């Protein structure tokens, strides 16, 4: 089962209410895919936000086995995988 979450920035990490919801929603912690929207071609910014969100999840006790950025640096075959 997959869980899809559309989000904007949480400037101070996840607050307690959001953290509780995420901990309930996210059961499968195998893969995390980060898909940027407005800064898709700004790879340095993408990498920064990717690491930021991984830290936010770690701060509430959620760690993923694999984490990926899906953006213009990838070839279509890798995106499909």
**Secondary structural class:** alpha+beta
Number of helices: 3
Give the total of beta strands.
2
Kindly estimate the percentage of residues that lie in beta strands according to DSSP.
5-15%
Low-confidence stretches: none
**Gyration radius, to the nearest Å?**
13 Å
Helix content: 25-40%
Strand order of the largest sheet: 1-2
Average pLDDT taken over every residue: 87
Order of helices and strands: HEHEH
Shape: globular
Task: Please give the alpha-carbon distance between the first and last residues.
Answer: 16 Å
Largest sheet: 2 strands, parallel
Question: In words, what does this structure look like?
Answer:
This protein is of the alpha+beta class and 81 residues long. 40% of the residues lie in helices and 10% in strands. It has helices at residues 16-25, 43-59, 76-80, and strands at 31-34, 66-69. The protein has a two-stranded parallel ribbon. The model has no long low-confidence stretch (mean pLDDT 87).
Topology, pairings included?
Blueprint: H1 16-25, E1 31-34, H2 43-59, E2 66-69, H3 76-80
Parallel strand pairs: 1-2
